[in-house]
Amino acid sequence: DIQMTQSPASLSASLEEIVTITCQASQDIGNWLSWYQQKPGKSPQLLIYGATSLADGVPSRFSGSRSGTQYSLKISRLQVEDIGIYYCLQAYSAPYTFGAGTKLELK
Amino acid sequence: EVQLVESGGGLVQPGGSLKLSCVASGFTFRDYWMNWVRQAPGKTMEWIGDIKPDGSNTNYAPSVKNRFTISRDNAKSILYLQMSNMRSDYTATYYCARGGITPFDYWGQGVMVTVSS
Q: For chain B: N or C, fewer Cβ within 10 A?
């Protein structure tokens, strides 16, 4: 199985700050990497797919990048509504696997 | 508007069975792979399995193989998850999610399943 190592586990940041979350894949997954935001009691919402493509309706302050088997989600200017838990997902090879999550809080 | 609505959750005893449904609307259901994903309380998500658009092929996570069965009714746009011989660690919120070129792009609201005596 492909392991997705996500970091950090938690993050405290100020409004307007730049935030970066990373996922390291245990093997090549190409661009089959997605990022999700989840708020309490809600289902995950797609932010980024194909490692770098912004999902419909997602603010442009969110962006994704890839360097080899390391993937990053960047929030350029943190807003209040960005608070939640973020997950990465590899859909390259079954069983598809998620990162452990990053809890993003306001400082 | 794409919508996925799960139902069928509840309390089940260890060793028991339960069948979840996911009603799809707003897209051509028969054209898409569909997935089931679960999330135990306070934990990350775990992919359970998926099913091909025509229902001819399914894939499962090792943790649920031979216990869970995914099926679909394309005429009714419904995805199913039959769970049997359930264990307490199957307690989770279960989601259906659409597959395809942009996998897991839409998710249902989730349904809670509690396995307890």
A: N
C-beta neighbour count of B47 within 10 angstroms:
24
Is B105 in Cβ contact with A95 (below 8 Å)? no
Contact call for A89 and B50, based on CB within 8 A: no
- Taking only the tens place, the pLDDT of each residue in A59-104 is 999 999 999 999 999 999 999 999 999 999 999 999 999 999 999 9
In the predicted structure, residue B87 carries a pLDDT above the cut 90: yes
3-state secondary structure chain B: CCEEEEECCEEECCCCCEEEEEEEECCCHHHCCEEEEEECCCCCEEEEEEECCCCCCEEECCCCCCCEEEEEECCCCEEEEEECCCCHHHCEEEEEEECCCCCCCCECCCEEEEECC
Question: Which pLDDT score is estimated for B102?
Answer: 87
Note the Cα B32 to chain centre separation in Å. 14
Contact B47 A99 (CB under 8 A): no
Q: Find the length of chain A.
A: 107
What confidence category does residue B75 fall into, taking pLDDT thresholds of 50, 70 and 90?
Answer: very high
Question: Which H or E run contains A45?
Answer: strand A45-49
Contacts of A36 in chain B (CB under 8 A): 104
Residue in A with minimal Cα distance to B43: A100
All residues of chain A having their beta carbon less than 8 Å from the beta carbon of residue B40 are none
